[in-house]
Amino acid sequence: MIHPRPLLREPRNADRPYLAINMVATADGRAAVDGSAVGIGSPADKRLMRELRAEADVVLHGAATVRADPLSARVPPDLVPQRLAQGLSEQPLGAIVTRSGNLPAHHPYYESATVIYITSDKSVPVNEPTVEVCRVSSIEQAVRDLGRRGARRILCEGGPTLNSALFEARLIDEIYLTIAPKLVGGDDPLTIVKGPRFASTIPLELLSLVEKEGELFLHYLVKYPSMQG
Ligand SMILES: NC(=O)c1ccc[n+]([C@@H]2O[C@H](COP(=O)([O-])OP(=O)(O)OC[C@H]3O[C@@H](n4cnc5c(N)ncnc54)[C@H](OP(=O)(O)O)[C@@H]3O)[C@@H](O)[C@H]2O)c1
User: Less Cβ crowding at N or C end of the chain, within 10 Å?
Assistant: First the structure.
């Protein structure tokens, strides 16, 4: 088993849900190869991703990741009984964040309940019975809205731009990071966080490290520096 269970924790603050990110990178730090993360991790990494989803009320994605990959927020049928036994819904709620509203009209993502959070007054060309469009002023408001809907544990699966905004807003509690034993090279600088340089470095505490067939599975606690002084 990779990492102790449960994988996702109870909220640290009463005012918002717990939020963890799950990302995979190559040994040279690349978060995408030819514009997609799909081929980076092993089957064990993909299984961990699904097991993390299985404990989450909500699986959150940035719009560019949804545009790039034919992904969904769902768990496979073998993980549904675990969810039901824990009092969770059959499938996690999917949540997508966008500013442009530029999302495909049809996508495998929309096969289960999804909220699209939009932070502008643009329109969203999605008209599916499973999809609700919710206008918010910021990513913080989106996370708090998920809390109001009853979400206790959110899993964010990136991408790097959304991660950066969530770190800036100090909304990420923990990080699951897989380092795949491979090099890509090239000059695509996409790493697991993409955005403005943080005002100060964010320290991490290593909670768990598991090696399996050369792949490293890390679990970190995020320790934001104090804002005083
Ligand atoms: N290695 C991994 O584990 C991993 C995981 C996920 C994705 N990826 C890869 O990462 C790439 C995509 O990443 P990315 O960084 O370009 O994009 P991203 O983070 O998936 O999405 C960025 C988009 O999300 C929306 N967004 C992000 N922050 C927002 C905020 N604070 N308020 C409102 N909207 C916000 C905006 O959508 P609009 O553009 O619609 O306004 C923004 O352009 C793909 O190649 C994907 O395969 C890798």
Answer: C
